[in-house]
């Protein structure tokens, strides 16, 4: 939630501050040059633009009704054109900040909360019995018999270790997915070691790094073996292609020779037919 909230707060601060400065400069082009008054104006701009997101619009200030400019040489008086432009800017600001950004934040939080609840429900129901009470005793008897078989026999040979569990997946029959999983584990292990090296930590980080390095080395060794097998397969495939290419070339040369022989036979036949006619 914090990771989503910090970028949102940054965007909301930029939008709110930018709108406040633009609105104030359009509405009050002539302000008091006193530094104290300028600082107060900055805080007033931020306060007005922030609370306008939550419904406190201050329309009397935007239209110029809250400022008395009847005194001569008065400052901070609203501009006549600014009194028309500022409410339009307010409408755009409320549309972007309140209707769009706030609802987007609510949607992100709702999605995360719903995903967490969905995961918890799926995890709970994955262990429930598919049989309704009072026949649920049958399911418990099946589970007890399965546990006894797993304890009394080799679970791997009988395949009881691959019980239908949505949170346990085996890729023993799919080598490609197994290689992808090993590659992902290697990448995550390298990223973990890099974070340990970059973070200022003590002996615990060094011990964790020492424990994780053998796993990374084993993953690297397996990856090298896979690369060697892949290179061997590529070489054998290329050799097969070269052999097929050579055979195709030989067939082409034999076809050319057969064509020449055909032409010679046709010429010989024509000559024999001419002599027979004579």
TrEMBL record:
GO cellular component: plasma membrane
Coiled coil (residue ranges): 219-271
GO molecular function: ligand-gated calcium channel activity
Lineage top rank: taxon: Eukaryota
Keywords, alphabetical: Coiled coil
Protein name, entry field: Ion_trans domain-containing protein
Lineage, highest ranks first: Eukaryota, Metazoa, Spiralia, Lophotrochozoa, Platyhelminthes
